[in-house]
């Protein structure tokens, strides 16, 4: 009896030990999520936070995917960093890579769980694997959510619109991630207030914005049209609107947008239309930036269902789509890959190969240049000023001509000694009109020298 008990105890201990070992060696599998942030720094894609209706742990999970090696989306090896995370549980934040060496993750805003305290900005140093809360100077900035961060080549993070206290905004926040200073961009001719829009860094000078959601559109808010697109000029600090044509996508928000590999196209994926999920055939569109025409690209491979509130990154020749709402995890993978290296036919695939580099970008010489709009009063003022200058020049030329003509005529009227044989030269006979004689007698005069 005692021996049987001992054997059962030993067996139970062995089972527990095996379970513990298995738990320690089991690969990390993150919870399904949406509204997370996905930031590519060097060869790591960092995923943080998000929302899940079934589990709250998703809000604090922090992990990354190594994209320097090949992987299959059906069996992804995630690296867990949750144990070092200091950011409160949250979703709907914006993130970029920035800092002096472009190796720091900057996280702005978001919605903390249960209105918990959360700082405006957090930083993650990817070289030391450490989080921090930076001290930032400049303009006073409020905490918003559901907006997208775009960083330019000089380390400035641009944050347009978003939600503040449940209301859509249309201001432009700018964070210099190198000197840690806030400033405000221009609101003149800015798009209408919106959140969960598409934003794409299309050149060293321009960011393109389109679509989104507006709380001002109706009682419950509504998705916005993609017929009009908006450029923000980061150099001149101004806005410009363009009207598109072609196969214009349906109104939508919570979608993603990226720049094509040739630098002359914007590719959008997914989204929702006034809370309605989009069909797969209505999920993928391309906007030609040369003539501003929309079209539906030719696609091959196993076409996945549409999703929204996901995140995208262009890595190599792939659009890497991570998580989101609207997909069944038992059918689709957490990561989707769209090969966009061939403009004639995009291809959905499960295999990521970092060694297959995309073709070189085409020169953007045909990219539409954004020039500042000159106000009409300025144009009128310049025109009037130019006319006045021309009139003064003409009058000045006329009076100079008359002066020279009168001078020559009066010089010819003065006889010289010996010029006429019967003329007795007499100084008293020589009468040179003076300025007073002109006023008194109306005679022409030679101006006194």
Automatic annotation (TrEMBL):
Transmembrane region(s): 374-401
Keyword Transmembrane recorded: yes
Pfam family, one: Kelch_KLHDC2_KLHL20_DRC7
Signal peptide: 1-23
Keyword terms of this UniProt record: Kelch repeat, Membrane, Repeat, Signal, Transmembrane, Transmembrane helix
Cited InterPro entries: Kelch-typ_b-propeller
UniProt-listed Gene3D superfamilies: Kelch-type beta propeller
Entry keyword annotation includes Coiled coil: no
PANTHER family for the chain: ACYL-COA-BINDING DOMAIN-CONTAINING PROTEIN 5, FIBRONECTIN TYPE-III DOMAIN-CONTAINING PROTEIN
Protein's name in the database: 9288_t:CDS:1
């Amino acid at each position: 009896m005692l021996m049987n008990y001992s054997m059962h105890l030993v067996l139970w201990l062995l089972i527990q030990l095996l379970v513990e070992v298995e738990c320690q060696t089991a690969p990390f599998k993150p919870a399904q999520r949406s509204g997370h942030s996905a930031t590519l720094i060097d060869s790591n894609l960092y995923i943080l936070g998000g929302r899940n209706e079934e589990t709250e742990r998703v809000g604090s999970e922090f992990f990354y995917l190594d994209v320097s090696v090949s992987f299959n989306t059906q069996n992804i090896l995630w690296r867990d960093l949750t144990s070092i995370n200091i950011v409160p549980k949250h979703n709907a934040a914006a993130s970029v890579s920035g800092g002096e060496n472009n190796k720091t993750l900057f996280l702005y805003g978001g919605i903390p769980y249960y209105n918990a305290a959360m700082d405006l900005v957090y930083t993650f140093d990817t070289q030391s694997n450490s989080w921090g809360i930076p001290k930032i100077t400049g303009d006073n900035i409020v905490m918003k959510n559901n907006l997208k961060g775009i960083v330019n080549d000089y380390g400035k993070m641009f944050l347009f619109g978003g939600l503040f206290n449940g209301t859509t905004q249309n201001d432009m926040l700018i964070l210099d991630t190198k000197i840690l200073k806030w400033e405000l961009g221009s609101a003149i001719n800015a798009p209408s207030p919106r959140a969960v829009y598409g934003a794409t860094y299309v050149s060293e000078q321009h960011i393109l914005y389109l679509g989104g959601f507006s709380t001002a559109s109706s009682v419950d808010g509504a998705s916005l049209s993609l017929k009009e697109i908006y450029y923000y000029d980061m150099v001149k600090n101004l806005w410009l609107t363009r009207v598109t044509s072609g196969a214009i996508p349906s109104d939508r928000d919570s979608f993603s947008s990226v720049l094509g590999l040739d630098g002359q196209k914007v590719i959008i994926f997914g989204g929702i239309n006034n809370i309605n999920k989009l069909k797969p055939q209505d999920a993928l569109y391309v906007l030609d930036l040369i003539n501003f025409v929309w079209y539906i690209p030719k696609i091959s491979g196993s076409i996945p269902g549409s999703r929204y509130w996901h995140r995208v990154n262009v890595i190599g020749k792939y659009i890497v789509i991570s998580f989101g709402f609207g997909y069944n995890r038992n059918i689709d993978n957490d990561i989707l890959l769209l090969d966009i290296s061939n403009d004639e036919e995009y291809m959905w695939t499960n295999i990521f190969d970092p060694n297959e580099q995309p073709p070189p970008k085409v020169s953007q010489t045909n990219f539409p240049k954004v020039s500042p709009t000159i106000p009409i009063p300025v144009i009128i003022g310049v025109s009037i000023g130019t006319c006045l200058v021309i009139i003064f020049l003409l009058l000045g030329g006329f009076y100079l001509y008359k002066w020279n003509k009168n001078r020559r005529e009066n010089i010819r009227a003065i006889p010289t000694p010996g010029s006429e044989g019967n003329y007795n030269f007499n100084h008293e006979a020589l009468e040179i009109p003076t300025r007073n004689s002109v006023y008194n007698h109306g005679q022409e005069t030679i101006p006194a020298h």
